[in-house]
Design goal:
Chain B: This is Spermidine/putrescine import ATP-binding protein PotA. Chain B: Part of the ABC transporter complex PotABCD involved in spermidine/putrescine import. Responsible for energy coupling to the transport system. The complex is a heterodimer of chains A (about 325) and B (about 375). Chain A is mostly helical and about 325 residues long. Chain A contains 14 helices and 4 strands. In chain A, β3 (about 80) and β4 (about 90) form a beta hairpin. The longest helix of chain A is centred in the middle third of the chain and has 32 residues, at about 95-125. The radius of gyration of chain A is 25 Å and the shape is globular. Chain B has helices at about 50-60, 100-110, 115-130, 145-160, 175-195, 205-210, 230-235, 240-245, and strands at about 10-20, 25-35, 40-45, 65-70, 75, 85-90, 165-170, 195-200, 215-220, 220-225, 250-260, 260-265, 270-275, 285-290, 295-300, 305-315, 320-325, 330-335, 350-355, 360-365. In chain B, the strands form 4 sheets. Chain B has a 6-stranded mixed sheet, with helices on both faces. The longest helix of chain B is centred in the middle third of the chain and has 18 residues, at about 175-195. Classes of the chains: A mainly alpha (about 325), B alpha+beta (about 375).
Chain lengths: ~325, ~375
């Protein structure tokens, strides 16, 4: 939104006083934000700096680092040093895991949006007294640990699980359908884990929607589909953007879900990084992988926000 | 205008609308029938909760009637969704799309009808000119004033050239002066476009100044339909007389009557000839209604039809209101238009008589 610029003539003395008052207010606000800034500094910025430094060091044989500058961690991301002639050979193994993780995250975001939008719309169109109950229902999964819930999915989809037992019992199939430890299992787990993060911002956006605008659009010959695309979606864009970010970013770095449901066979970025600090004993490589992920997310975010926020008009 | 069945833009036939279920049922419209002619500025007037907005929403298609039919040029539109009715609405809240510019708002209806781009542009330009908003066409709707938003809402609703334009209290959010301007503006637009306007308001002054005909509504029913003059001078019921303009109510007894005129005796034994509406048979104790400007003061109490004591004099610039405490105990207001040559001046506490103009008094159903 652009606001009309003040012409110099309208900047009267009163406006100057106001500007000073605003400045004083800003100083006070900065002071109030200090505790949060300190926490972010100690537990956010400082660890990030440590990761940055570690990614340029050499791995010690039994974990930890040796204080010696090296860019090997970054080289190792794409290349492998031949043991015999010391040449670098291109190995896309990590890159494949990154691309697969991106694919999982993108598919999760899209399906969450497709499932979450009608859900949020339904919630937002209930009578006000009912809405809070629906919000409560959506947040119920958060009351128990994600690990426990993921293990529950495992019990439902495994070969001797609920679904296969039921289908065999009903005579639909003779042999169990393998679902656990597949890409399907990871995808299902991600969808389940992140759907509420899509529904809630969408709901808060749709709840503020002025439904008289929808009537106005119907009145002006818009069909239900046109009302959706021309009025409801453009006006709930803030919620769509927030929901997509809240699903995409954590889905990309998901750790527990692919570990349990993928059985360690179908790795995602989170598992890969965790491996470097565990069995891999290559802290610098883990740090480099984490930073590369962060850089990739930032680049993706930059383009996403630039493409969605600017031209809300032309939905 | 004589009643011509083929010339009705909208015919509402026996429409009922009930909200809620079971014990909570409320009849917002209780079997309403009314015909609205082509090219007419028709007003639905009534206090809030009388059902006027419900009737408008049924015509627009936002709600569907519980019973009855709504004909648009002879075709029943009651079951059609709003986007299939050649009827557009100006909303009380304007309901402009905040994510579109002024021009995009105005063009929205045409775009949804799938009109070619060139036609839309030409029509939008024409509409911008009609409502004098050419300079602001690229503005966002949040960057224009309330009066300007009102104009955009009008242009947006008129752009698809609807058969009927519905206006739901469109002026209520404007300040007094702007409202006056827009009243004239609306009348001009109606004349220029030749579209039937159905206007909903609770403001009787607005209704009287703008309408060709008015339907006065109360508690889900239409009490009277007529020209502003009909409604004001010959109200059909006490509610109509009370709701429109200021009215004096006087008790009296019917002593004799012939068709359309009854002779009513006051407590003071004075009598007056009073008209009464068709289909009403006044007998015994009745209430007379008299408009304040249809009566005048005389200094000599004996010369008035009724008499009393002046209790208050309120000066309004264009006219003066004299509050008279009648000998029978009732309050009566006389409105006298001020002029340079007013010969008599009155003082509070003076005994005065009140004379009535011919046809000033009417007997009405309570």
């Amino acid at each position: 939104m652009t606001t009309a610029a003040l012409s110099p003539t309208t900047l009267s003395k009163a406006a100057l006083f106001e500007a000073q008052a605003v400045k004083a207010g800003a100083r006070r606000n900065r002071l109030l934000s200090l505790p949060a800034l300190i926490i972010i500094g100690i537990f956010g910025v400082l660890p990030l700096l440590i990761i940055c430094v570690y990614s340029f060091l050499v791995a010690a044989p039994y974990g930890g680092v040796q204080w010696q500058f090296s860019t090997d961690a970054y080289l190792n991301f794409l290349f492998q040093r031949d043991i015999f002639d010391d040449t670098l050979q291109f190995t896309p193994d990590f890159l494949v895991i990154y691309l697969r993780s991106f694919l999982f995250a993108v598919v999760t975001t899209i399906i969450c949006l497709l499932l979450g939008f009608p859900t949020a719309y339904f919630m937002a169109t209930r009578p006000p007294a009912q809405r809070n109950w629906w919000v409560l229902l959506i947040t119920i999964p958060f009351w128990s640990n994600l690990l426990v819930r993921t293990l529950a999915i495992m019990f439902i989809i495994r070969d001797e699980g609920l679904i296969n037992d039921a289908l065999i019992g009903l005579g639909v199939i003779d042999k169990p359908i393998t679902m656990l430890y597949t890409n399907f299992a990871i995808q299902l787990g991600l969808l389940y884990a992140f759907l509420p993060f899509m529904v809630l911002p969408l709901y808060s956006s749709l709840e503020k929607l002025d439904f008289r605008l929808i009537e106005a659009a119907y009145d002006l010959y818009a069909t239900r589909r046109q009302v959706l695309w021309r009025v409801i979606i453009p006006m709930s864009k803030p919620g769509i953007i927030a929901g997509c970010l809240l699903v995409f970013i954590p889905a990309l770095g998901a750790y527990v879900t692919p570990l349990i449901l993928g059985g360690g066979v179908h790795l995602m970025i989170g598992d890969l990084i965790a491996q470097q600090f565990g069995s891999g004993r290559n802290w610098p490589l883990g740090c480099a992988q984490a930073l590369i992920l962060m850089a990739a997310v930032l680049v993706a975010l930059f383009f996403y926000v630039r493409n969605t926020s600017g031209k809300v008009q032309h939905g | 205008m004589p009643e011509q069945p083929g010339k009705n833009a909208i015919e509402v036939r026996g429409v009922r609308k009930v909200f809620g279920t079971g014990e909570n049922q409320v009849a917002a419209l209780d079997t309403v029938s009314v015909s609205i002619r082509e090219n007419e500025f028709f007003t639905l007037l009534g206090p809030s909760g009388c059902g006027k907005t419900t009737l408008l929403r049924l015509i627009a298609g936002f709600d569907f009637p519980t019973a009855g039919e709504i004909l648009l040029h002879g075709q029943d539109i009651a079951p059609l969704p709003p986007f299939k009715r050649p009827v557009n609405t100006v909303f009380q809240s304007y309901a402009l799309f905040p994510h579109m510019t002024v021009a995009q708002n105005i063009g929205f209806g045409l775009e949804m009808l799938g009109k070619p781009k060139a036609e839309i542009e030409a029509r939008v330009a024409q509409m911008l000119k009609l409502v004098k908003m050419e300079a602001l066409k690229a503005r966002s709707t949040s960057q224009i004033s309330g009066g300007q938003q009102q104009r955009v809402a009008l242009a947006r609703a008129l752009a698809p050239q609807p058969k009927v334009l519905l206006l739901d209290e469109p002026l209520s959010a404007l300040d007094y002066k702007l409202r006056k301007e827009m009243q004239i503006e609306l009348k001009r637009l109606q004349n220029e476009t030749g579209i039937t306007f159905i206007f909903v308001t609770h403001d009787q002054e607005e209704a009287l100044t703008m309408s060709d005909r008015i339907a006065v509504m109360s508690a889900g029913k239409i009490l009277q339909v007529g020209t502003p003059r009909d409604i004001y001078d010959r109200p059909a019921e006490r509610f109509v007389a009370d709701f429109i303009g200021e009215t004096n109510f006087l008790p009296g007894t019917v002593v004799s009557k012939k068709p359309g005129v009854a002779t009513v005796k006051f407590a003071s034994n004075a009598t007056i000839a009073a008209g009464y509406p068709e289909g009403f048979d006044p007998t015994g104790e009745v209430t007379l209604v008299v408009r304040p400007e249809h009566a005048d003061l005389v200094p000599d109490p004996a010369k008035g039809t009724i008499a009393g004591t002046l209790s208050n004099i309120v000066y309004f610039g264009t006219d003066t209101h004299y509050h008279v405490k009648l000998d029978g105990g009732e309050n009566f207001i006389v409105r006298h238009q001020n002029s340079r040559s007013s010969s008599v001046t009155y003082a509070t506490g003076a005994k005065v008589g009140i004379q009535f103009e011919e046809d000033a008094a009417r007997v009405l159903k309570d």
